[in-house]
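User: Predict the complex with 2-(butylsulfanyl)adenosine.
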Amino acid sequence: MSPAPTPAERADRLRALIRHHEHQYYVLDAPEITDGEYDALVRELEAIEREHPELDSPDSPTKRVGGKPREGFQKLAHSSAMLSLDNALDESELRAFDGRVRELLGGADFRYVAELKMDGLSMATRFQGGSFQLAVTRGDGSIGEDVTENARTIRSMPLTVRHTDAFEVRGEVVMNRRAFERLNTDREEQGLARFANPRNAAAGSLRLLETAITASRRLDYYAYFLLNEAGAFLLDSHWESLEWLARQGFKVNPLRRICASVEEALDFCREFDARRDSLPYEIDGVVIKVDSVAQQVALGYTARAPRWAIAFKYAARQVETVVEDILVQVGRTGALTPVAVLEPKVVSGVTVSRATLHNEDEIARLGLQIGDTVVVERSGDVIPKVVRVKELGGTRREFHMPTECPVCHGHIVREEGEAASRCINVSCPARLKESIRHFASRNVLAIDGLGDVLIEHLVESGLVKSVADIYRLQQADLESLERMGPKSAANVCANIARSRLMPMPRVIGALGIRFVGERTAQLLAEHFGSLDLIANATRDELQAAQEVGPKVAEAIFDFFHEPRNLELLERLRAEGLMFRHTVVKREGGPLVGLTFVLTGTLPNLTRDDAKKRIEEAGGKVSGSVSKKTSFVVAGEEAGSKLDKARELGIPVIDEDGLLEKLG
Ligand code: IVH
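Assistant: Here is the predicted structure with 2-(butylsulfanyl)adenosine placed in the model:
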């Protein structure tokens, strides 16, 4: 046995481990351990640093949580101006740029690198002696603000790198759509104004004096430019620089391409214009750069921008239109959402005639009245929203939240500290329709064919008065409805019957408990194992589950203490829905009794695919290597698990080896 490590050795080891797992999670999106295991490592390191302050270091991953509030930001000059880029607003402008490059390079061969233009804010970062030193916002291009402590909280920012000479990296700070939506939902609940878009949210979050709040905002940093320090080292091409940055641990967008001609660059632009909505973050165009550093130097700069790069801008997703009316929709929880009825306009190929206004406060913030001309923005696949009032209407009319539900005429209340007004009638048909729609939706119980029109008919005809009633529907009931043939009626019935087999996390999701989405439902199921245990848990017991804080615990607790919800629960139980969390294991299979650990990137299979296939073949996948591990499957850039496997003498196989075992 080797002697127990000294605190200094253990701290070093923990930092290396935490860095590795942060890189896997935040940069590569390929976690190897659970969140709980990760937290345990951080807590152990924190304890050592507390007991041995001499071992503490600003590079330590524990410094990502943010310290004391600060007075303000110091102004700092950039090492060289942070220029912006010239824009190409259409294909002919991009071809014209290509013509200029071609001419200036005197007919020499060259190629481009096309990258996504991330919609955030640019930030310069400096590294020296292998560690993160400084982060400065763009500011006016020559002078920015020192946001080092805030940038340290960005999980995808490497705090240590292998290269020890000084270098500077420039990149974009962004907030992805999910983090943005979550932040706005939280703000709405706290009665705060929503951020208009992820870019504003990212900028606001980076410049907070309270670093701990920045840490909670889940920003991301994508590196896109390596400044070559005078003489220290010089890479020959932009592409190589990006690959070098990725090897140093930076997050570099993998959606990039070498293009041999402007036509190939245009293909890239068109391809990502079409995919724009499905990306997890917002982009506003594509940046096209001459790849060779020597050619970049030859092309040089104008006063404003490099001559070797250009931003191909996508069409704005904003239009101006008139708000003809404001309607009120009733959601699943009874929340009333005001919706602007717009004079229809086409925005990048889609006709927009409605836009959400979220709540009364939002209307007040916009200063909007019916009849005003507004700017409406479509972004991602979210419902269009009103950005601002452009011009006051000649005849304008103020909007007032109704005092009774527009659907059931029930009572409306707006609780203290809540942004939303709610219809409190639990059997309001509008709430019922929304509940069924949620119940049947793809990520919940996935009942194909139970769409809006059918739901409308089912509720209006009185066939369905509670969500549970859908399990009582007979084929004949459905056939009696308008536009329902025997075949589709049979299909819907079969799909309803099949939904009884959906695993328990889906059932939890179907209940529509506030704040309980897919992930929380999964974590609750794993922690409690049965719906009854969740229903009977105290607030404290609920909080013992991963990622369940006081607010979520309260919402779950309240849900299961509402008699009508318990009634629904009993009916669903009687219908045979899954109230227990059973991990379905196949009997037999070639890998029964074997435990695998995955590490590194496999050439073809994603980690999820590999895991699924192993489990389908009866094997188990574990997050860490131990004596019980049967095989370690190692791909490229395999990490510490590979070392551990060698240490313990566990056989190591590659993807081919795994496929062979899978048969
Ligand atoms: S290159 C000299 N690459 O777009 C190099 N910029 O209008 C200058 N941006 O200020 C920047 N994604 O904030 C570059 N892949 C990318 C980018 C990108 C977003 C932003 C950046 C810059 C602005 C230029």
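Residues 83-85, 115, 117-118, 122, 172, 224-225, 287, 306, 309, 311 surround 2-(butylsulfanyl)adenosine (CB under 6 Å).
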